[in-house]
Design goal:
Blueprint: H1 9-15, H2 42-50, H3 64-77, E1 81-85, H4 88-99, E2 105-109, H5 114-127, E3 130-134, E4 150-156, H6 168-177, E5 181-185, E6 203-207, E7 221-225, H7 227-240, H8 246-256, H9 259-278, E8 283-287, H10 297-303, E9 310-315, H11 319-328, E10 333-334, E11 344-346, H12 358-364, E12 370-374, H13 380-391
Parallel strand pairs: 2-3, 2-4, 4-5, 5-6, 10-11
Antiparallel strand pairs: 1-7, 6-7, 8-9, 9-12, 11-12
The structure holds pyridoxal-5'-phosphate (PLP).
């Protein structure tokens, strides 16, 4: 079944792009684990290479299992087309490089995923593409940084690890006024909770390693936009060599089938856990956009359908107290990454944000007692018991 505007998000996740396999009627699609394709004759060779007739030629440029994932993702994000990549960072770097040229300038929020932040610095040092960083909570201020070289506004919301929000509509409005392209990293929200393209964003990028594939099994990334932009981004993907292996593409496409259900459960588990921890005597503070105490809760209500599976909290005390909690958690594992079916948690000051300077950590609100949790799809009562027991040792 191809895209149908009338299908709801859960039905789209299951059915779009999927047809029973023509050879045997298999409901689960085969994995096209091949690098190349026999082309029936020279006329067809000419058509595929010179006239861009649809049809596969080499897996670095396209593969049927990749295509299945791309069709599902485009439908769920509400875009014309999508490209899958070998990692979230591959999608991000190929997209950014496609959109920029020599001497261009970028506007990006101060709180960014670490590797994206390093990539913008690398572009400046090695390629002469300058990035101006603005205060994440105050996107209205970007207007003063715009000049005739500004080409790209880069957003990421909610942010890692303290779940700050960027006002997408406000950013898009300013960008449109000045003819600037907007890119949104939607990884933390997932397309079930936040639809960037519907808000006027030009390209949505995501680490599909997280909620889209959803089982902590495959490293992969996606970009979604107009067919024309995706064609250019795929050309960059080929030059960088960022193709997604067919097996990982299959894991992604299969994971996508349950994304709507998984994210719904993660939203409700995370909200329940945020409320539980907010009222807990051993916890100083909880960061979760779904809590009324979140500074940008009103904005979260406006631009998100659900508040996501990610939350951060500060344990009273410091690293010793956090260590005691982790020593006694049984179900919840100490692990990086997010968006999967298992609840995992990490200590950003050591792991994900370990390379930042003490000043940068203070600026981003990253303390020794900050824990970031990615809430899974378990029964909430079990998560509750695990956290309550572990915190009783703090
Ligand atoms: C994980 C992540 C990335 C990078 O994705 P990879 O698949 O690890 O390359 C980018 N942005 C955000 C917000 C992420 O959480």
């Amino acid at each position: 079944m191809t895209r149908d505007e009338k299908l709801g998000p859960s039905t789209s996740c299951v059915h779009v792009g999927s047809e029973p396999d023509p050879a045997h009627g298999a409901i689960a699609p085969p994995i096209y684990q091949t690098t190349t394709y026999a082309i029936p004759n020279v006329g067809e060779l000419i058509a595929r290479y010179r006239q861009r007739k649809p049809g596969f030629t080499y897996t670095s440029t396209g593969n049927p299992t990749q295509r299945l994932a791309e069709i599902k993702i485009a439908a769920v994000e509400g875009g014309e087309d999508a490209a899958v990549f070998s990692a979230g960072m591959a999608a991000i770097t190929a997209t950014i490089t496609t959109l920029l040229g020599q001497g261009d300038e970028v506007l990006a929020q101060g709180d960014l995923y670490g590797e994206t932040f390093h990539f913008f610095h690398m572009l400046q040092e090695k390629m002469g593409v300058k990035t101006h960083f603005f205060d994440t909570a105050n996107v209205a201020k970007v207007e003063s940084l715009i000049n005739d070289r500004t080409r790209l506004l880069y957003l990421e919301t909610p942010t890692n690890p303290t779940l700050k929000l960027v006002d997408i509509a406000k950013g898009v409005k300013i960008a449109k006024k000045h003819g600037i392209t907007t890119v949104l990293d939607n990884t933390f929200a997932s397309p079930m909770n936040q639809r960037g393209l519907a808000m006027g964003v030009d390209v949505v990028v995501e680490s599909a390693t997280k909620s889209m594939s959803g089982h902590h099994q495959a490293v992969c990334g996606v970009a979604v936009s107009t067919a024309e932009r995706i064609r250019k981004i795929k050309s960059m993907r080929g030059q960088y060599g960022q193709t997604l292996d067919p097996f990982a593409a299959w894991l992604l496409a299969m994971g996508m089938q349950t994304m709507a259900l998984r994210v719904e459960r993660q939203n409700s588990n995370a909200l329940s856990l945020a409320k539980l921890l907010e009222g807990h005597p051993k916890i100083r503070r909880v960061h979760y956009p779904g809590l009324e105490s979140h500074q940008q809760h009103a904005l979260a209500k406006r631009q998100m359908k659900g508040y996501g599976g990610l939350l951060a909290f500060e344990v009273k005390g410091g690293l010793d107290e956090v260590t005691r909690m982790f020593d006694h958690l049984k179900l919840v594992k100490l692990a990086t990454s997010l968006g999967g079916v298992d609840t995992i948690a990490t200590i950003p000051t050591i792991s994900t944000h370990g390379s930042l300077s003490p000043e940068e950590k203070v600026k981003m609100g990253i303390t020794d007692s900050l824990v970031r949790a990615s809430v899974g799809i378990e029964d909430f009562e079990d998560l509750k018991r695990d956290f309550e027991e572990a915190l009783s040792f703090v």
